[in-house]
Design a protein that fits this description.
heterodimer, A: 60s Ribosomal Protein L30, Chain: A, four-stranded mixed β-sheet, three-stranded antiparallel β-sheet, 5 helices, B: alpha+beta, twelve-stranded mixed β-sheet, 2 helices
């Protein structure tokens, strides 16, 4: 008892010290070291490396913001002005500035969706036919990971859907292991109703959302 | 009032300490490509980065003059760094089942490329790319950032 009380006092004094050093009550007397101004940056929107589709970004700081939505649109940012103006970089400039980083991008993750026959843990014929392609995708990667995620529709409550998704994912894990996938590569998880393929209201039956997604990356 | 403030402060200190004690076993992602020399800075120490190594929230990726590195995060987000570069995975939460989503990447120096993953589809507002002089909000997209002159 006494020992645990002493331990508690020690912990509290440690917390107090942390509080004080965090500036809660004591003023620091040492002069602040000169802080260099934040470095400028060049920010560039690029087309997606696989689909070629260009998305949209908003670049902001305390002075203002600018939206970029075209391929290779760029802005300079500094610590003392709003970002901008927009300038479109050439392909050569993108390659010169970012070529090494782009070359270091990991291969794109691949996704497979498996569905079950109605009220069973047997894959549909179309889904069963995908299994060899999944194994091939794993073999093509130098550092593969396989993530099996179970999904449900929004029927029922969130918690039981999380459990249902996990049961479906575990069933798929068994199928892939017996097809020859190495066990250490595989991770099984559930997103329950939190990550639907088709957005619906709560308590909506939607067969497309009852699925297992496999990511090979 | 000030008592309340100190209580809040105490709660914040406890909150800041707890995650370190209960080190999250779930990695934020894995290293997929390395060339030249690259390192992971974790809790003040530095370890050599190798393909297949896990990385965790609050880790920093750092490359030397001859180095580059590429990681894939749990939600399929990909991040790669060119030479002499540093990016911190400041915050990373990805558990759509429990409703927890969030990512903050700090581009500290050098060059890096970000390719969005599932989090940008599920909850784009939960993603923030921070450069020293600006913040980038993304809508499912690829962004390249160079910090410095």
């Amino acid at each position: 008892m006494a020992r645990s009380a002493r331990g508690c006092a020690w912990l509290l004094s440690g917390l107090l010290a942390a509080l004080l050093s965090a500036g809660c009550g004591v003023r620091r007397t040492a002069p602040a070291a000169p802080v260099p101004p934040p470095a400028p940056a060049l920010i560039v929107l690029l087309p997606d490396p696989e689909s070629g589709i260009t998305g949209r970004i908003r670049v902001s700081n305390e002075f203002g913001s600018i939206d970029l939505s075209t391929p290779r649109a760029s802005v300079q940012t500094t610590a003392h002005a709003a970002p901008g103006p927009m300038r479109t970089l050439s392909d050569d400039e993108v390659k010169r500035f970012f070529g090494e980083a782009i070359a270091a991008l990991p291969p794109p993750p691949r996704h497979f969706i498996l569905q079950f026959k109605f009220e069973s843990d047997t894959l549909t014929d179309a889904s069963a036919a995908l299994v060899p392609a999944i194994l091939d995708a794993v073999k093509a990667l130098p550092v593969p990971e396989v993530v099996i995620v179970g999904h449900t529709d929004t029927m029922g409550d969130r918690k039981s859907n999380l459990a249902l998704g996990l049961r479906r994912a575990t069933a798929v894990r068994g199928i892939l292991l017996s097809a020859g996938l190495a066990e250490p590569l595989v991770e099984v998880t559930s997103h329950g109703e939190g990550d639907p393929l088709v957005k619906t209201r709560d308590n909506t039956a939607e067969p497309r959302n009852r699925r297992v997604e496999i990511t090979v990356r | 009032m000030s008592g309340l403030r100190c209580l809040v402060g105490l709660a914040m200190v406890v909150g800041a300490v707890t995650p370190v004690a209960a080190q999250q076993p779930v990695p934020a992602g894995h290293i997929k490509t390395v060339s030249g020399s690259a390192a992971i800075v974790r809790a003040g120490g530095t370890v050599t980065a190798r393909p297949g190594d896990p990385i965790y929230a609050t880790d920093t990726l750092r490359t030397s003059a001859d180095g580059s590195i590429g990681v894939t995060l749990r939600d399929d987000t990909r991040v790669s760094l060119g030479p002499n570069s540093e990016v911190k995975v400041d915050r990373y939460v990805y558990s759509p089942g429990e409703g927890g989503l969030g990512m903050v990447l700090k581009f500290v120096r050098g060059v890096a490329v970000y390719v969005s993953g599932r989090m940008a589809k599920i909850a784009p507002d939960s993603i923030r790319l921070e450069a020293p002089s600006a913040i980038v909000g993304v809508r499912g997209t690829t962004v390249a950032i160079r910090v410095g002159d």
